[in-house]
Amino acid sequence: MDEAEEKIPVTVLTGYLGAGKTTLLNRILSEKHGKKYAVIVNEFGEIGIDNDLIVKSDEEIYEMNNGCICCTVRGDLIRVVQKLMRRKGRFDAIIVETTGLADPAPVAQTFFMDEDVRSKAKLDAVIALVDAKHFLLSLGDSPEAEDQIAFADVILLNKTDLVDADELAKVEATIRTLNPRAELYHTNRSDVDLTKILDRGAFDLDRVMESDPQFLDHRDDHHDHDHDHGHDHHHHGHAGLDGNVHDTTIGTVSLRGGDLDPKKFMPWIEKVTQTDGPDILRLKGIISFKDDTDRFVVQGIHMILEGDSQREWGKDEKRESRLVFIGRNLDHEKLKRSFAACAA
Amino acid sequence: MVTIANIDLDDGAYVEWAGFVGDVPMFATADGDVIRVEGGQTVLSIHDGLLCAELVQSGDALLTGGEDGKVCRINSDGISTVLTDLEDSWIDQIAAGPNGAIAFASGRNATIIIDDKIASEISLERTIEGLAFAPKGMRLALARYDGVELHWVTSGGSTQVLEWKGAHTGVCFSPDGKYVVSNMQENALHGWRLKDARHMRMQGYPSKVKSISWSPKGKWLATSGAPAAIVWPFTGKDGPMGKAPKELGSMGKLQVTCVACHPTEEAIVIGYSNGMILIVKIEDGQEVPLRSEGKGAITSLNWNKQGTQLAFGSEQGEGGIIDVTS
Ligand SMILES: [Zn+2]
């Protein structure tokens, strides 16, 4: 038998009509970065690129048969990814474009819930492309616009040249209300350094925190704990309710604690994702279990939960447990209380 | 005695279909080449990306559909014809019926060709994920999300909808036309007895069922998706209901990836995830090994008409012809 094949990384690109997806995809397909990308686009969407590696698809949602509304996958992706994977060496990575109104969760969940896709491909990161000029208007239209921001690992605030400084600040503040933790870049004509958005490993358990600037800051205790954006964790959960930028039910809950008892934490996190799964868009965490020399890393999407021992805690590393939820209607107090009860 | 002739395919090419066109072995790769073996090997470049392939019912030609939107027919002499060109729309499914009938699907649309003319065009609300002609060729089954639809092959006539919640990713009729069986996204098959649309749930697989094959008289349905060939009895009037399937060719944890019933005898050839191939008698489970292992999982197995030779292909550029009589 051959050695295990490397899994193909998949980047999901969300964003509204006109946010600059065509420009960005054209750059990814044409620039010399040493990688070949297959791009899966919506067949009824806006992307008008003619390229051998563009595949049109129809965003078909499958509900998995457990009756839960949040447990959905993209049936078309299962078909297309499996077929593409048979032609070896044709491409090194995949980009999935979703239409403006698409919920990003089914796309992401496909890479965890379908055994065939999961065995050949892995989710790398979810990118949200935001049109600085039209973003605030689009937010009023649909919950999907909010979800796309809240769900993202990387946010490209595009067309910044079309708005003035005040408006830009307002857009950025609104984005930060919905997602204080994603990497955010200001761009014009999608002119981002492609290494910032491709091959991020944001869903890799080993790298789950690397792409999260807040966690990076916390990792080294010598760093200053007052962040420029004022994202002190005590306020995350209620940022949206302060309400002067954008009224939303989406919020972030950041939890911190010392050593935890795995016999308490594991059933707790499973119960939280089972009962609150539909409301949880993303969760990420590094956990310090008592008497365990390794860091334990978790991540989740809705009801999907992954966790594993990652590496040994460093000698100078402060052992603590940190967990972040982004979701709708999260009960900050309850999460805080029940998390605290997991202490060893 | 068993002899194997190995065929050289492009390095690592995934074999989508391996079998006999007339008496000529052919190997269709996912890249879009068809390798024809007569005297030596000839490579026919048919598609830019091949998605599906099926033998016409007479056995004299291979039908293929590609990422390039083409539907092609390749005769045993290697001459190929483009039957349809939808340009950049993928041809996802292809099926062959009696008297040269052909059906193919691209996305939500299917086309039925009879006597070289379009007999009917069908559009569904959801993607068509499986196509199969009924044995007499009067109806076409289309698998889609939440069920299977049976359409008459000429326009008009009422459509019969067989509903079952979930994604149906393939479909076939039993050889006597009494049952319809679908593959599902879940690790299961679903069946319907047509006279009363009675449901048959065939579950318990550890993974998806991708390969299924009926024994010649329709007494048995052999399936992949487990570390043994799971073979359902269709001997009584209730199909497999209330009966346990046979588990044949169990090789520890090794997964069965492909099955093909012998054209005349009650025996099944089984392909495994490590490239192993063996033949097993349905009645007593007696096994004859044909190939010990290879580089990759077996993706296709087809007998010649007489059942004397077998063609195989793997996902790692291997193909071969096995003579089981010599
Ligand atoms: Zn769910």
Class based on secondary structure composition and strand pairing of chain A: alpha/beta
The biggest sheet of chain B amounts to: 6 strands, antiparallel
**How many DSSP-defined strands of chain A?**
14
> Quick one: biggest sheet of chain A?
7 strands, parallel
Helix content of chain A: 25-40%
* Average of the residue pLDDT scores of chain B: 95
Percent of residues in β-strands of chain B = over 45%
Number of helices of chain B: 0
Count every beta strand of chain B, where a strand is a DSSP E run of 2 or more residues: 30
Strand content of chain A: 25-35%
The DSSP helix count of chain A reads: 12
The portion of residues assigned to helices of chain B is: under 10%
Spell the H/E element sequence of chain B: EEEEEEEEEEEEEEEEEEEEEEEEEEEEEE
Give me the side-by-side strand order of the main sheet of chain A: 3-2-6-1-7-8-9
Write the layout of secondary structure elements.
The complex is a heterodimer of chains A (344) and B (326).
Chain A (H helix, E strand, L loop, with lengths): L7 E8 L5 H10 L6 E6 L11 E4 L3 E3 L8 E3 H11 L7 E5 L6 H10 L1 H6 E11 L3 H7 L1 H9 L2 E5 L6 H14 L4 E4 L26 H7 L13 H4 L2 H4 L7 E8 L4 H15 L3 E9 L5 E8 L2 E9 L8 E8 L3 H9 L4
Parallel strand pairs in A: 1-6, 1-7, 2-3, 2-6, 7-8, 8-9
Antiparallel strand pairs in A: 4-5, 10-14, 11-12, 11-14, 12-13
Chain B lengths: L2 E6 L6 E7 L2 E6 L3 E6 L1 E6 L4 E6 L5 E6 L3 E6 L4 E6 L7 E4 L5 E5 L2 E6 L2 E7 L6 E4 L5 E14 L7 E14 L5 E6 L4 E5 L4 E5 L9 E3 L5 E4 L5 E5 L12 E3 L7 E6 L5 E6 L4 E5 L5 E5 L6 E6 L5 E6 L3 E6 L3
The structure holds zinc ion.
Zinc ion (ZN) binds next to loops of chain A.
A few lines on this structure:
By secondary structure, chain A is α/β, with parallel strands linked by helices. Chain A has helices at residues 21-30, 75-85, 104-113, 115-120, 135-141, 143-151, 165-178, 213-219, 233-236, 239-242, 262-276, 332-340, and strands at 8-15, 37-42, 54-57, 61-63, 72-74, 93-97, 121-131, 154-158, 183-186, 250-257, 280-288, 294-301, 304-312, 321-328.
